[in-house]
Structures are given as structure tokens and as C-alpha cells.
What does this fold into?
Amino acid sequence: MKQNKVILIGYMGSGKSAVGLLLKKEIGLSFWDLDDYIEKQENTSIASLFSSRGELYFRSLERKCLDQLLADPNPMIIALGGGTPCYYDTMDFLTQNENTTTVYLKTSITELGARLFPTRISRPLIAHLQSEEELTEFIGKHLFERIPFYSHANFTISTDGQTSAEVAQKIATLLT
Ligand code: S3P
It folds into this structure.
């Protein structure tokens, strides 16, 4: 594998973190979840960063933290946050960098709604949504804005009806 950073992108609930952990075992690279890295660096949760500093602060911090991980010369898998590729020049920057391979985990609106409804409280952008219908409508609009960024990924893998292990296995095959 010539690329030394494998970058997983996709909407919240698309399975980036779970797939990243399994892919780590499959291909033997280290793994960072960008949200976890930010929480460690700042010593606080993403939810409290959103509420105390606001989303714009969070967006600049996530780009700064991504740049730090990319500057590490060691090969690694990085799961981005759902919004990371959609701010600044991040998606172009990743696709133009020959050391990175971007993989979009593509999940349908209905499946995202079902996966995210039970855990929405811990996610600042969707915590306020009351019903699964409301959440699904929000996801539909939000995804429409984000797909133009996600669709530039080097590879796209559909995750609907797939286990994280199956998705990780497919990515491992693509990379070898
Ligand atoms: C966000 C996704 C979250 C986290 C933050 C914002 C987004 O990450 O970065 O709550 O804008 O979609 P996950 O996609 O890992 O849940």
C-alpha cells in the first residue's frame, strides 16, 4: 500500500469509528478517531466544546487536529467527524494529497435515521430532534448539502445491511 493515511469519511452513524477499529486489525495500521483525538487534546467532550465555544470554534479545531495527525509520518487510519470534509478546503486538500486514500462510507437516509435515533442525545447537531421522522427529515437535508463533498472520495462503500466487519473487509481488499 503506497498511501500512508487511510481516511474514513461519511455521515454520523455511517460506522466510521467501528469500521476503523476493525480495519486496524485487518491491515495492521494504527487508528485514530478524530473526535477522540480532539477530546484528548482539549480534555473535554465534543458536546461541551459545541455548547461552550460554538460550532465555528469546533470546526477550526477539528481542522487543526486533522493537520496534526496528517503531519505524523507514520501510516495510520483516521476516521473523520461527519462534518470534517465539508469545511474549509479539507476535501480538496485530502483528495489532492497523494499520501491519503479517502473512503466514503455511504449509508441511506432511512438507515442513518434508525441508527442515530437512539444515540442522538450525545450528538450536538441532532440532540434536539424529537422523533425519528423529524431526524430522518433533518438527515435528508443535511446529507444533500454534504454529498457534494463526500462524493469526491477515492472510494465509496455502501454500508446498508452490512456489518462493520464486512465493510472493513471490503476496504482492506480495496487497499491491497
Ligand atoms: C459532526 C459529527 C460528529 C462530531 C460532531 C459534528 C458532524 O462526528 O464531529 O458532533 O458535523 O456531522 P461523528 O460523525 O463521528 O459522529
